[in-house]
Amino acid sequence: MSILNVFITPEEGLIGVDSECTFPDGSVGEYGKVVVAPAANAVVAFRGTDYVLKAAIANIVCFGGELEQMAGCLPDMLKGAVDYSRKNFQAQEEDLKLEMVLVGYSQAERGVVGHLFRRDVGSEEIRVDRIQNRFIAPYWGGGDVPAGLSDNRDGLCMLARSQSLLAREREPGFAAGGRYFIASVKRRSISIAQAFEFPPRPEKVG
Asked: Counting beta carbons within 10 angstroms of the beta carbon of residue 201, is it exposed (0 to 12), middle (13 to 18) or buried (19 or more)?
């Protein structure tokens, strides 16, 4: 899995993702985990293995509707991507677990909104929830979230550094490092920039 954090206010959505990935042999690399959907004025980011995103990426990037339409279409798009991954990537069931967020400016609600899409191992259902202000993953418990966390870029960076340290202590094979990227979604703009680099880790994990 990976680091995926979302902070939302009506004026701006901030999405933070790490770039680290691990391979079956224990080696460590980097992978992009955030995609822009320009027509919907939105960003999609994910955590989990990359099969489903690779299968769905063209439909996400080229989607021509508004944010609400995209949120309504994504469950079926993801189900199709799961089927495609089984048939064409020979993806195993444990590799098809997914957490994906869609964050964008809603013309209907006149503000930034976020949606969370989840698929559990062994389930064909795509669960959809509205993100209320924050989504934090990994999340072990309230006591692990830094005190005084602000809903801005500094807060996202503080949170991610803490998550990476905890993950390496508790689950050494957990992908939580590399570089940290922050996407910003506003009414008339989308931007993605590297915020910092995590401390290096061994070339192999686990």
From this structure: middle
| Backbone φ, ψ for residue 68 (5° rounding) | -65, -40
pLDDT tens digits for range 144-203: 899 989 999 999 999 999 999 999 899 888 889 999 999 999 999 999 999 999 998 866
Q: Report residue 65's pLDDT band, with 50, 70 and 90 as the boundaries.
A: very high
In the DSSP assignment, the letter for residue 204 is B
The gap from C-alpha 94 to its chain's centroid, in whole angstroms, comes to 18
Q: How far is CA 37 from the centre of its chain?
A: 14
Write out pLDDT tens, residues 33-49.
999 999 999 999 999 88
Say how far apart CA 28 and CA 173 lie, in whole Å: 10
What letters, b where the CB count within 10 A reaches 16 and e where it falls short, cover 145-159?
A: beeebeeebebbbbb
Contact 57, 35 (CB under 8 A): yes
Least Cα distance to 66 among 104, 117, 10 occurs for 104
Longest dimension (CA), the chain: 48
